[in-house]
């Protein structure tokens, strides 16, 4: 059994290191940090669990049983942030606290593994389901199975620990190191769902990036369209305009001669106000000077 | 030992499912499909490995020893496609073929597990090494540790299996099911490397996505700037232009009177070619009519 614990622990440590690797080398969105932190807390919990019998029992029991719900609450915190929801209400931290107090009671005062399992299962399952709920409820434009499947992973993640806790109720003299089949099934499922869970977080991050990419491409297209439209509205006066040297009429492309003012006004935003320039005024109205 | 085999197999099957899920719901780049098929072949290999003893030995042995190198060769092919290199030469399929032939010889002619293991390992390690080399050689970005680490993971993957097979050759008697610490360590490492492999493929894909996103954003910024500049450069003729009703001179903002042609040419893209309109021609040169 210890071998299995060690494998679970190594897998989770490995996933935690992977999360750190991604966070330090890749673009990640808000919330990813809390997920990474959750992985480390989870890994620490499994470390304490696999040291059962080697370190003092109370440390392994209380440490492990606080770490697991705390890790899931961190997952929840990350999910709240990632999905741009309001910040996670602080009372969620009551779950690891309740687990600590409950397990302290059922370890130090009356030693009952079964009750401890039930408490830990509840405080782990509920935040997991909250994560699943947030994901399935989140606004999404992706019609694929992506979100439902990721949400289902989180839901099952919570469900398996609860199933195990209930199952254990029916096993007399259950011990954490016992080799009951449920233990194997459970811990192998833990491996599977931990991997699935990490990859879900990684994929959620990359799905967001994908959406950003599409949004950016769409925005690019829109800006180009908008600016093209703006350019088109600007009337530009260009080309070689044949002008009459004497009367200043302008000939258009179809050969008609237009009054200068009329032509320029049609082909640009300029309007004309007529007056007389001083030179012409002197010529035309010499009596005024 | 069977427990470890089961965990490795379950993890590998999970990895194949994750690859399939990712491929069907997310944006993937060329090469990802090959990786997915590789992961499926790998999973099939592990399924036949745990069926050892349940089905005919030779079926299990030959399929396992062919599918592992075939999977890695497909990973390699996918990597070439992903990195934009030309497709893998068909000669690379020699590796699964050699493994099949070699393992047939060391099963039907002289039954020797250690040599079978060595041949298969070499056929897996070489394509792995090539793949790691391609990543080092052709990685698009060198500043972060991302590509080197992915390359290292793939390299270690190949190295590990080779080291183990050499170790196995030195053993007087070897059984795949033997519970030595090296075996246990090796299979735990294999579990982690399987996970690492899949996550690497997903991350490579999402790194590409990230790069495209950055490019799209940069292009968006550039285009908007270019177009704004273009819009600014368009000389627009606008406002109310005071014009002399007689000589058609135009007064600018500072009060100077400009020759019409000069003013328009400076403030727009229009140039003038002087001529005489028919009316003025008749007036000015009546002798011509």
Task: Explain what this protein looks like in three dimensions.
- The complex is a heterodimer of chains A (289) and B (289).
- By secondary structure, chain A is mainly alpha-helical.
- Chain A has two domains: 2-221; 250-288, no CATH class.
- Chain A contains nine helices and four strands; from the N terminus they run αααααααβββαβα.
- Chain A has helices at residues 2-25, 32-50, 57-82, 94-109, 113-137, 146-169, 181-233, 260-267, 278-284, and strands spanning 238-244, 250-251, 257-258, 269-275.
- Chain A has a two-stranded antiparallel sheet.
- In chain A, a hairpin with a 5-residue loop joins strand 2 and strand 3.
- In chain A, helix 3 (57-82) runs antiparallel to helix 4 (94-109).
- The longest helix of chain A has 53 residues, at 181-233.
- The radius of gyration of chain A is 36 Å and the shape is rod-shaped.
- Chain A starts with a helix and ends in a 5-residue tail after the last helix.
- The model of chain A has no long low-confidence stretch (mean pLDDT 87).
- Chain B is mainly alpha-helical.
- The radius of gyration of chain B is 36 Å and the shape is rod-shaped.
- Chain B has nine helices and four strands; from the N terminus they run αααααααβββαβα.
- The termini of chain B are far apart.
- Chain B folds into two domains: 2-209, Rhopdopsin 7-helix transmembrane proteins; 232-289, no CATH class.
- Chain B is 71% helix and 6% strand.
- Chain B has a two-stranded antiparallel ribbon with strand order 2-3.
- Chains A and B meet through helix 1, helix 7, strand 1, helix 8 and strand 4 of A and helix 1, helix 7, strand 1, helix 8 and strand 4 of B.
- Strand 1 of chain A pairs parallel with strand 4 of chain B, so a sheet runs across the interface.
Q: Report the total helices of chain A.
A: 9
Q: Largest sheet of chain A, order of strands side by side? A: 2-3
Percent strand of chain B equals 5-15%
Q: Can you summarize the main beta sheet of chain B?
A: 2 strands, antiparallel
Supply the helix-strand structural class of chain A. mainly alpha
What integer is the average pLDDT of chain A? 87
Strand proportion of chain A: 5-15%
Instruction: Tell me the domain tally of chain A.
Output: 2
- Radius of gyration of chain B, taken over Cα atoms and rounded to an integer in Å: 36 Å
Oligomer: heterodimer
CATH names the topology of the largest domain in chain B as Rhopdopsin 7-helix transmembrane proteins
Q: Note the gap between the termini of chain B.
A: 115 Å
- Please tally the helical runs of chain B, counting DSSP H or I stretches of 4 or more residues: 9
Please count the beta strands of chain A (DSSP E, at least 2 residues each). Answer: 4
Element-by-element helix/strand order of chain A: HHHHHHHEEEHEH
Share of helical residues of chain A: 55-70%
The parts of chain B where pLDDT drops under 50 for at least 5 residues are none
Distance between the termini of chain A: 117 Å
Low-confidence parts of chain A, pLDDT < 50 over ≥5 residues?
Answer: none
Spatial arrangement of strands, main beta sheet of chain B: 2-3
The major sheet of chain A is characterized as: 2 strands, antiparallel
């Amino acid at each position: 059994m210890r071998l299995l614990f060690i494998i679970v622990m190594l897998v989770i440590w490995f996933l935690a290191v992977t999360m750190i690797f991604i966070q330090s080398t890749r673009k990640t969105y808000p919330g990813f940090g809390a997920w990474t932190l959750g992985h480390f807390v989870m890994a620490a919990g499994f470390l304490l669990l696999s040291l059962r019998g080697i370190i003092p029992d109370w440390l392994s029991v209380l440490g492990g049983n606080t770490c697991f719900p705390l890790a899931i609450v961190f997952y929840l915190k990350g999910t709240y942030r990632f999905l741009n929801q309001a910040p996670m209400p602080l009372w969620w931290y009551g779950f690891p606290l309740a687990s600590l107090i409950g397990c302290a009671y059922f370890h130090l005062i009356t030693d009952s593994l079964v009750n401890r399992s039930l408490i830990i299962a509840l405080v782990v399952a509920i935040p997991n389901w909250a994560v699943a709920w947030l994901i399935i409820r989140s606004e999404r434009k992706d019609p694929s199975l992506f979100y439902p499947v990721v949400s289902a992973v989180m839901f099952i993640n919570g469900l398996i620990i609860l199933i195990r806790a209930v199952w254990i109720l029916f096993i007399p003299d259950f011990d954490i190191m016992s080799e009951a089949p449920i233990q194997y099934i459970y811990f192998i499922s833990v491996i599977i769902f931990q991997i699935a869970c990490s990859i879900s977080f990684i994929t959620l991050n990359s799905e967001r990036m994908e959406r950003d990419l599409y949004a950016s491409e769409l925005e690019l297209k829109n800006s180009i369209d908008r600016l093209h439209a703006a350019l088109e509205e600007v009337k530009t006066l260009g080309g070689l305009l044949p002008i009459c040297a004497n009367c200043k009429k302008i000939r258009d492309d179809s050969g008609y001669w237009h009054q200068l003012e009329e032509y320029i006004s049609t082909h640009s935003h300029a309007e004309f106000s007529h007056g007389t320039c001083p030179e012409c005024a002197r010529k035309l109205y010499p009596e005024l000077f | 030992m069977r427990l470890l085999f089961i965990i490795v197999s379950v993890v590998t099957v999970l990895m194949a499912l994750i690859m399939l899920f990712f491929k069907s719901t997310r944006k993937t780049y060329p090469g990802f499909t090959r990786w997915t098929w590789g992961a499926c072949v790998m999973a099939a290999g592990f399924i036949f490995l745990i069926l050892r003893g349940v089905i005919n030995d030779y079926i299990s042995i030959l399929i396992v020893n062919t599918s592992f190198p075939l999977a890695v060769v497909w990973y390699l092919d996918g990597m070439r496609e992903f990195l934009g290199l030309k497709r893998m030469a068909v000669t690379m399929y020699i590796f699964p073929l050699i493994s099949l032939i070699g393992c047939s010889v060391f099963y039907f002619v002289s039954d020797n597990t250690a040599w079978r293991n060595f041949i298969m390992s070499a056929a897996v390690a070489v394509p792995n090494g090539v793949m790691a080399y391609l990543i080092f050689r052709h990685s698009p970005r060198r500043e972060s540790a991302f590509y080197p680490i992915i390359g290292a993971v793939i390299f270690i993957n190949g190295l590990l299996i080779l080291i183990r097979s050499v170790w196995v050759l030195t053993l007087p008697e070897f059984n795949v099911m033997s519970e030595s610490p090296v075996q246990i360590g090796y299979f735990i490492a294999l579990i982690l490397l399987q996970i690492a492999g899949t996550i690497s493929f997903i991350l490579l894909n999402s790194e590409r996505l990230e790069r495209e996103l950055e490019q799209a954003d940069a292009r968006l910024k550039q285009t908007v700037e270019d177009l704004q500049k273009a819009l600014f450069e368009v000389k627009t003729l606008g406002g109310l232009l005071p014009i002399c009703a007689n000589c058609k001179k135009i007064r600018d903002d500072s009060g100077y009177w400009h020759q019409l042609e000069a003013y328009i040419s400076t403030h727009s893209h229009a140039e003038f070619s002087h001529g005489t309109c028919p009316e003025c021609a008749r007036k000015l040169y009546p002798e011509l009519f």
